[in-house]
Design brief:
Number of strands: 5
Strand content: 35-45%
Low-confidence stretches: none
Distance between the termini: 25 Å
Radius of gyration: 14 Å
Order of helices and strands: HEEEEHE
Strand order of the largest sheet: 1-5-2-3-4
Structural class: alpha+beta
C-alpha cells in the first residue's frame, strides 16, 4: 500500500507559512493540481542566487529534495526559461518561491 500523502495545496500553504513566520517572503509562481500535483521550490535570498529544488527518486526507492538547477549569474534568463519549460512538461507542477536566507532548510 502506498504512503499517505497530504493534498498538495496544504503542503504548499504550510511551506509558505513557515518561511513567512521566519521573516521571509513566499509566493506561488505556478499552481498545479490542487490535490495531487508535484512541487518545485525555488529558493533565493534578497532576489539573488536562485535554486530550483525537486523531489527526485533515489536509488533506495525514496524521493528526496534535490537541487535540479542553479541560476547562472551570467545568464539569469536561463533559469526562468528552465522554470517555464518544466511547467510546460508538467501541468500539475506547483512552483513556490521562498525568498529567505537558507530557504532549503524548509524542505530538508
Amino acid at each position: 500500500m502506498g504512503e499517505a500523502r497530504l493534498p498538495v495545496h496544504i503542503e504548499v500553504s504550510g511551506l509558505m507559512r513557515r518561511a513567512e513566520a521566519a521573516g521571509g517572503f513566499a509566493t506561488i509562481l505556478a499552481r498545479g493540481d490542487w490535490e495531487a500535483g508535484t512541487i518545485m521550490v525555488v529558493t533565493c535570498h534578497k532576489g539573488r542566487d536562485f535554486r530550483a529544488w525537486e523531489r527526485l527518486p533515489q536509488p533506495d526507492g525514496t524521493r528526496s529534495w534535490t537541487c535540479s538547477r542553479e541560476e547562472d549569474p551570467a545568464d539569469p534568463a536561463a533559469f526562468t526559461t528552465y522554470l517555464d519549460r518544466r511547467r510546460q512538461q508538467d501541468s500539475d507542477l506547483w512552483i513556490v518561491e521562498l525568498d529567505i536566507a537558507e530557504g532549503e532548510r524548509f524542505i530538508r
